[in-house]
Amino acid sequence: MALAAVIAISIVIVALLADKSEKRQDGRVSVIATIFPVYDFVRAVGGDRVTVSMLMPPGTEAHSYEPKPSDIGKLNKAGLFVFMGDDMEPWASDLTAGLGPEGPKVLEAGQGVPVLLLESEEHSHGEGSVEGHGDGNGHDPHIWLDFTNASYIVGRIAEVLSDIDPEGTGYYSANAADYVAKLADLDAAFREAVEGSSTRVIVHGGHYAFGYLANRYGLEYVAAQGFSPDSEPGPKQLMQLMEVIKQTGAKYIFYEELVEPKMAKAISEETGIGMLLLHAGHNVSKQQFESGATFLDLMRGNLENLRIGLGYHGK
After folding, report:
1. Residue 249 forms beta bridges with which residues?
2. Which of 94-98, 168-172, 249-253 has the lowest mean pLDDT?
3. At what angle do helices 147-164 and 36-46 cross, to 10 degrees?
4. If pLDDT is split at 50, 70 and 90, which confidence band does 233 have?
5. Cα–chain-centroid distance for residue 140?
6. Distance between CA atoms of 67 and 215, rounded to whole angstroms?
7. Segment of 16-30, 85-99, 135-149, 198-212 carrying the highest mean pLDDT
8. Which domains does the chain have, with CATH numbers?
9. Which pTM does this prediction carry?
10. Is the dihedral of CA 276, 61, 40, 192 positive or negative?
11. How far apart are CA 253 and CA 171, in angstroms?
């Protein structure tokens, strides 16, 4: 049976059994978020007035994740379900389509954010994926990697939590303002790092995840794959990235989290250049999750690695 059909049946059954009293835990709003960025934004804004859980298990690669029918039970016990957007979580509409009055309030956090388009597959140098491994003309789903977008999303979360829990409006607004200020500080630090660097080229041996970051700070960004890490780049893509490295004099190739960096390793071994992590924030490892890693932590790590990779020398 197709996933959508199984989910639809599960929605009906669980909705009949759901108890509205379960939508709060110890007086707090119960929230389920799909992926790590929205989970962490809710955690920061909601603070002690919410309990938040992440639908996608830590350590899971976000683009290949599909929900289980049993997740419907979790949703119907929540007061709020938050997902980033249909481009990032195309399965979210199947989860929410049949939710009735007993289901949670639903927030598509990224709704209204201007999206970037990967316009062409054929880039040997410049912004895009190397030839043959773009996803055609498609929307870049990684909207949270522009901190102005992240700030907008944080504000939307504060508004919805205030609608659900009006007594906490001031609390949510203050937490959101504090978080937005931290994002603004990061934004300024990223801009200063780029302006004080010897190169503005990011060579990435993974999927096209950092278009928003590149667009925000005027970087050239070349990736081995399109928007999904599922496609395997081949020898042609390897040679094209190596040519970009030769042309630009790049000293490092970047790789991403939770995916075996085969391409980056191959290029590093062939050319002798270094490897650096750029964390797209989709998800974190189980160890990171249990230790309380935050989105801001991940982005600060990116800042340090960009300084190294771009040859930061200060103003």
Report:
1. none
2. 94-98
3. 50
4. low
5. 11
6. 32
7. 198-212
8. 3-111+142-178 (3.40.50.1980), 190-309 (3.40.50.1980)
9. 0.87
10. positive
11. 42
Cβ proximity of 32 and 80 under 8 Å: yes
| DSSP, residue by residue, 122-168 | --SSSSEEPTT-S-SSEE---GGGSHHHHHHHHHHHHHHHHHH-GGG
Structure confidence at residue 25 (pLDDT): 62
Instruction: Give the span between the Cα atoms of 28 and 165, in whole angstroms.
Output: 9
pLDDT of residue 1: 42
Residue in the block written with tokens 């009735």: 100
pLDDT in tens, 241-254: 999 999 999 999 99
Residue 102 CA: distances (Å) to CA of 12, 14, 74, 96, 105: 10, 9, 12, 12, 9
Which are the contacts of 218, defined by CB distance < 8 A and separation ≥ 6?
194, 200
Query: In this structure, what token pair is assigned to residue 56?
Result: 């996608």
Which of these, 258, 190, 223, lies nearest to 118 by C-alpha position?
223
The arithmetic mean of pLDDT across residues 112-126, rounded, is 65
Q: How far is CA 29 from CA 57, 274, 309, in A?
A: 21, 46, 42
Helices (H), 165-271: 169-195, 211-217, 235-248, 262-271
- pLDDT-wise least confident of 62-71, 158-167, 280-289: 62-71
- What is the C-alpha separation between 238 and 259, in angstroms, rounded? 17
- Residue 285, CB half-sphere, CA atoms under 13 Å: how many? 9
